[in-house]
C-alpha cells in the first residue's frame, strides 16, 4: 500500500489538508485580493459582517477591513510557523544526530545543553528574547526556533541510538564509510519519519506562539497578524465580538488542520503502529 493511499485512508487528515490548503491559498492570494495595506481605514468603525457590501467580515475599531487583515495575517502566521520550524530542525537534527551516533561524552554534553533550554518555559523565554531583540518578524522567528529545537534533538537522538546498531550501518562501517557518510546517508533517512510528523505539530505550536506574542504587543508592528487582531479587539468584545472571534477561529482551524495532517502522516509513515491502534 503506497504512502498516499495510507494517508488518504485517514479522513481527518484529508479534512486537515483541505483546511490548510484554503489558508495557504488565502495567504498567497492576499496581495491580489487586498492590494491595499490592511492597516488602511476604509469604512466607518464597527461594521458587522455583511452589513455593508464589499466588507464580508466587517470592520474593526479603526475602520479597517477585517477580511483584509485576516488574509494578510494568514501569510504572517504560516510564514512564521514554517520558517521557525525549519530553523529549529536545522538546530535540533544535527545535535540529536551527533549525540545519538557518538554517545558517551558527546551525548552527555549535548543532552545537558538541551536540558538547559528545556528547564525554561518556552513562552517565557520567547517573550524575553523578543523583548531584548526588539519585536520584528525576524526576531520572532529566531525566538520561536530557539525555544522549539530541544524536542527535535531528543527525538533524533533516540532514533539514532536505535538505528546505529542495525546491520546496514555495520555493513557501511565494514566497507570503509566515514562517520559523516553513515550519519547522512545511512541513518538519517531512516530517522526522518517521526521528525516529519513532529515538524507538522511544531508548525502549529509556532503559530500559537506567534499569535500569543502579537496578542501581548510583541509582534512585528509593521505586519498585520491574527494575534494582533485579537489583542486589539479584546477591549471591545461586548461591542464587536466578531473582531476577536474571526481571527480566533482562523487560528483554531489552522492549528487543528496541522494536527490532523500530523496524525495522517504518522499513520502513513508508520503503518505498523497504525494497525495496532
TrEMBL record:
Chain segments annotated as transmembrane: 12-34, 74-102, 123-149, 195-219, 240-261
UniProt subcellular location: Cell membrane
ABC transmembrane type-1 domain ranges (all copies): 74-262
Keywords for this protein: Cell membrane, Membrane, Transmembrane, Transmembrane helix, Transport
Signal peptide stretch: none
Record-linked InterPro entries: BP-dependent_transpt_permease, MetI-like, MetI-like_sf, OppC_N
UniProt superkingdom: Bacteria
Pfam hit, one: BPD_transp_1
Main location (coarse class): membrane
Membrane association type: Multi-pass membrane protein
Family: Belongs to the binding-protein-dependent transport system permease family.
Protein name: ABC transporter permease
Source organism (scientific name): Kushneria aurantia
Amino acid at each position: 500500500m503506497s504512502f498516499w493511499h495510507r494517508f488518504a485512508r485517514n479522513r481527518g487528515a484529508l479534512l486537515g489538508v483541505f483546511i490548510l490548503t484554503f489558508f495557504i491559498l488565502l495567504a498567497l492570494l492576499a496581495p491580489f485580493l487586498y492590494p491595499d495595506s490592511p492597516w488602511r481605514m476604509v469604512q466607518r468603525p464597527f461594521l458587522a459582517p455583511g452589513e455593508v457590501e464589499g466588507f464580508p467580515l466587517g470592520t474593526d475599531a479603526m475602520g479597517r477591513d477585517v477580511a483584509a487583515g485576516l488574509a494578510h495575517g494568514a501569510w504572517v502566521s504560516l510564514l512564521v510557523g514554517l520558517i521557525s520550524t525549519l530553523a529549529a530542525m536545522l538546530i535540533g537534527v544535527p545535535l540529536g544526530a551527533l549525540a545519538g551516533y557518538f554517545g558517551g561524552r558527546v551525548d552527555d554534553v549535548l543532552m545537558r545543553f538541551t536540558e538547559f533550554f528545556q528547564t525554561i518555559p518556552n513562552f517565557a523565554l520567547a517573550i524575553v528574547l523578543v523583548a531584548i531583540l526588539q519585536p520584528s518578524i525576524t526576531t520572532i522567528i529566531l525566538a520561536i526556533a530557539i525555544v522549539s529545537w530541544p524536542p527535535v534533538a531528543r527525538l533524533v537522538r533516540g532514533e539514532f541510538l536505535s538505528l546505529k546498531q542495525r546491520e546496514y550501518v555495520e555493513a557501511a562501517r565494514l566497507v570503509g564509510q566515514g562517520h559523516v557518510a553513515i550519519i547522512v546517508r545511512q541513518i538519517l533517512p531512516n530517522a526522518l519519519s517521526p521528525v516529519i510528523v513532529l515538524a507538522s505539530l511544531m508548525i502549529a505550536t509556532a503559530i500559537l506562539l506567534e499569535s500569543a506574542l502579537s496578542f501581548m504587543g510583541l509582534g512585528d508592528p509593521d505586519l498585520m497578524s491574527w494575534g494582533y487582531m485579537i489583542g486589539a479587539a479584546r477591549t471591545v468584545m461586548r461591542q464587536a465580538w466578531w473582531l476577536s472571534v474571526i481571527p480566533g477561529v482562523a487560528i483554531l482551524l489552522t492549528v487543528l488542520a496541522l494536527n490532523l495532517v500530523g496524525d495522517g502522516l504518522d499513520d502513513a509513515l508508520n503503518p505498523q503502529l497504525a494497525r495496532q491502534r
